[in-house]
Amino acid sequence: MKRMLSGIKPTGQLTLGNYIGALRNFVNYQDDYEMIVFIANLHCITEYQDPADLRKNLTDAVALYLACGLDPDKATIFLQTDVHAHAELGYILACNTYLGELNRMTQFKDKSAKGEKNMTAGLYTYPCLMAADILLYNANYVPVGEDQKQHVELTRDIAQRFNNRYGETFVVPEPLIAKVGARIMSLSDPSKKMSKSDEANKGCIYLLDDPKTARKKIMSAVTDSFADVKLDKENQPGLYNLIEIASALSGRSMEEIADEFAGQGYGKLKGYVADVVCSELEKIQSRYNEIIESRQIEKILSEGSAKAAAIADETLARVKNKIGLEIKY
Ligand code: AMP
Ligand code: TRP
After folding, report:
1. Residues 139 and 219 in one domain
2. What's the pLDDT band for 156 if we cut at 50, 70, 90?
3. Does 247 score more than 80 pLDDT?
4. Is the pLDDT assigned to residue 291 strictly greater than 50?
């Protein structure tokens, strides 16, 4: 079975976009791949986080992953800091990465171009830590959003360079980019991605939003003045996005939904989308509450990190041996 690995960086609350675009896919992959999913808490602190908020976001992210259907009997789920090899290999790989490569990373470049002050050294070297996250587990595939593709490509370069220099050590991974359509747009501005950094929060549905709040956001979603339900991504992007959300969650095709509401005005369609979204949120939230109450999270993470560490420690030992870091008595 091929191995797949992905990390999430919960610097805020998970959104409906995260669910449709990423989380649900991981849940589907867990049957066909050996799936390793971790919470990238070391990556969170590349920018300051309030400690109480961070702790809550980390716990919620684990609980939501389980609530959405990730099964700890199938997938290995753990917290990055529980496996010490990440930080250690991250440092070793930083010593095998050139400044020129890190300077080219768009996430870092964009932030410096915007004149952002107080950028940390951790933010700069974060792609080396991400490479360590992946290479420790000999992962074949890394499912990520488009914005992370460059980091997986750097991981490939680092792995190949290391293999050439020290002999075959790492599996060279491939990025797996979500299919087109896995990009849910903001409800208040359909030209922008639905994102947890949405300041007004009106365009973004959080997985832990009260269903009433979620319904309100959908009913006031920005559409257009054609007053005609059609599938026209270019001219009616807001409407298209709503139909896409309903289609993704209900399993019905977008055409079928558009046909059903043709000639009925947008209010009816929005009501239907709200019903579908709220019923999904209620399901997720009821499982989320059960999981939080059952106090299973600690046990799941501790079993997950034991399984992960067995793989990671073996890789790290091999790396140290190749480099000549240990003393043979
Ligand atoms: P982020 O929350 O931006 O760190 O993204 C985590 C993952 O969730 C990304 O790799 C994306 O694949 C996915 N994701 C985030 N926002 C959206 C969205 N609006 N539509 C679809 N997928 C998304
Ligand atoms: N950098 C990813 C993000 O911001 C999170 C991440 C950290 C990750 N390490 C990873 C993703 C390893 C895939 C594989 O979304």
Report:
1. no
2. very high
3. yes
4. yes
Q: Which ligand ends up closest to the CA of 137?
A: 2
Site of tokens 């099964």: 71
Give a yes or no: residue 186 inside a domain: no
Nearest ligand 1 atom to the CA of 185 is: 19
110, pLDDT greater than 60: yes
For residue 139, the ligand closest to its alpha carbon is 2
- Residues with C-beta less than 6 Å from any ligand 2 atom: 5-7, 9, 40, 43, 130, 133-134, 142, 144, 148
In a domain, 222, yes or no: yes
Residues 277 and 310 both lie in one domain:
no
Is residue 117 part of the annotated active site? The answer reads no
Task: Please tell me the distance between residue 264's alpha carbon and the centre of ligand 1 in angstroms.
Answer: 32
Residue pair 169/318 in contact by the 8 Å Cβ criterion: yes
Check which CATH number belongs to the domain holding 134 and give it. 3.40.50.620
- The domain tally of the chain equals 2
pLDDT in tens, 60-78: 999 999 999 999 999 999 9
Range(s) of the domain holding residue 147: 3-177+296-323
Residues 292-308: pLDDT tens digits?
999 899 999 999 999 99
Beta bridge partners of 35: 4
232 falls within a domain? yes
The pTM assigned to this predicted structure is 0.88
Is 111 within the bounds of a domain? yes
Residues 238 and 149 in one domain: no
Q: What is the dihedral of CA 226, 231, 236, 241, to 10 degrees?
A: 130
Same domain, 306 and 256: no
